[in-house]
Amino acid sequence: MAVGILALQGAFEEHGKMLDRLGAEHFEIRQLKDLDRQLDGLILPGGESTVMGKLLMDLGLFEPILEKIKNGLPTFGTCAGLILLAENVQGGKPCFASMDISVKRNAYGRQLGSFHTDKEFKGIGRIPMTFIRAPYIESAGNKADVLAEVDGHIVAARQDNQLVTAFHPELCDDLSVHKYFLEMIKCR
Ligand code: GLN
Q1: For the segment 86-112, what is each residue's pLDDT rounded down to a tens digit?
Q2: Which helix (H) or strand (E) holds 164?
Q3: Distance, CA of 163 to CA of 135 (rounded, Å)
Q4: DSSP state of 144
Q5: Smallest Cα–Cα separation from 69: which of 94, 39, 38?
Q6: Considering only CA atoms, which residue is closest to atom 5 of ligand 1?
Q7: Which of 55, 133, 155, 167 to mutate to test the pocket of ligand 1 (most atoms within 8 A of CB)?
Q8: Strands 41-44 and 2-6, sheet pairing
């Protein structure tokens, strides 16, 4: 099993470290030829969704990645990665628009929007959650399953092969969300 991590910008290295700790093989996706490798799962990291969206287009990665997501490739988007997958983006432009959710960018404010909490994640239990200039999901359509909420806002959801978190599990010590994602790959 090999997980590709989109490595154009943002917090991609941290995801690699989590996968190392779980013994899962991974590699970075920086250009089109990286998609020639065996790819069983994809991580879209946190960072700046507008910058990543533009680079995906400029590098010709947008279409082939969208096709893979639509064909059922297990995909995990954190923070900016969540925004890239959302069908509707308040305060920004949709990118892959493959997930039936509406998100609000920088929903907690631009500067003071970083915080940490512990909350329940469906199927896992209580886990630590770190938010950095995070979006939240304003509404999730019928196809999406809500997995976690903080203060009445949806912060994690899943729709078939797509998993998203508004927080950064890769910045905590807790491996459970990455483990959950690896299970999604194994059960495909
Ligand atoms: N605010 C960023 C955006 O809109 C997301 C922040 C993050 O990924 N930590 O893309």
Answers
A1: 999 999 999 999 999 999 999 987 666
A2: strand 162-165
A3: 15
A4: P
A5: 39
A6: 80
A7: 133
A8: parallel
The residue nearest atom 8 of ligand 1, judged by CA position, is 46
Q: CA 178, CA 164: separation in Å to the nearest integer?
A: 11
Question: 3-state DSSP call for residue 44?
Answer: strand
Exposure string for 170-184, b = 16+ CB within 10 A, e = fewer? bbbebbbbbebbbeb
Nearest to 53 by CA among 62, 65, 43: 62
Q: Over the stretch 1-12, which tens digit does the pLDDT of each residue have?
A: 999 999 999 999
Look up residue 161 and give its two tokens.
Answer: 């092969």
79 labelled catalytic: yes
Go through 43-66 and write b for each residue having 16 or more CB atoms within 10 A of its CB, e for each that does not: bbbbbebeebbbbbeeeebbeebe
Q: Give residues (CB < 6 A) around ligand 1.
A: 46-49, 79-80, 83, 105-106, 132-133
**8 Å CB contact between 131 and 167:** yes
Quickly tell me which residue has 């305060």 as its tokens. 91
Instruction: Give the separation between CA 173 and CA 185, rounded to whole angstroms.
Output: 22
pLDDT digits (tens, 9 = 90+) for 21-39: 999 999 999 999 999 999 9
